[in-house]
Design the sequence.
């Protein structure tokens, strides 16, 4: 599966952005999709995931209630709607796809910068 993330940018604190991730290739073999992020000097961290069939979602505590993951089954797209953004949300955001046990496909990342 090939993944292409887009939609990052510069936004003021309290603002919103929507990230998109386009999937291509063996999409029928994908069980789940997720967003991760990596801030400068920090390790990559999990943000949110969605099960492709059924749409079950799960979020990290730090983004719960502010970020929403969704998918368009027919377009093979995954989205991350980001609201009430904080400076600590600044990071490179990556989309990932995987099986039930691991994430084995990664996109190239899109930069999100939140100014205070």
Sequence:
């Amino acid at each position: 599966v090939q993944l292409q993330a887009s939609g990052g940018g510069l936004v003021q604190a309290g603002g919103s952005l929507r990230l998109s991730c386009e999937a291509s290739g063996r999409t029928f073999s994908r069980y789940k999709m997720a967003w991760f992020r990596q801030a400068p000097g920090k390790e990559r961290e999990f943000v949110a995931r969605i099960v492709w069939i059924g749409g079950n979602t799960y979020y990290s505590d730090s983004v719960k209630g502010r970020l929403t993951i969704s998918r368009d089954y027919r377009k093979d797209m995954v989205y991350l709607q980001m609201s009430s953004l904080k400076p600590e949300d600044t990071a490179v955001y990556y989309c990932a796809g995987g099986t039930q046990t691991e994430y084995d496909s990664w996109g190239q990342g899109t930069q999100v910068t939140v100014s205070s």
Remarks:
- The longest strand covers residues 17-24.
- The mean pLDDT is 93.
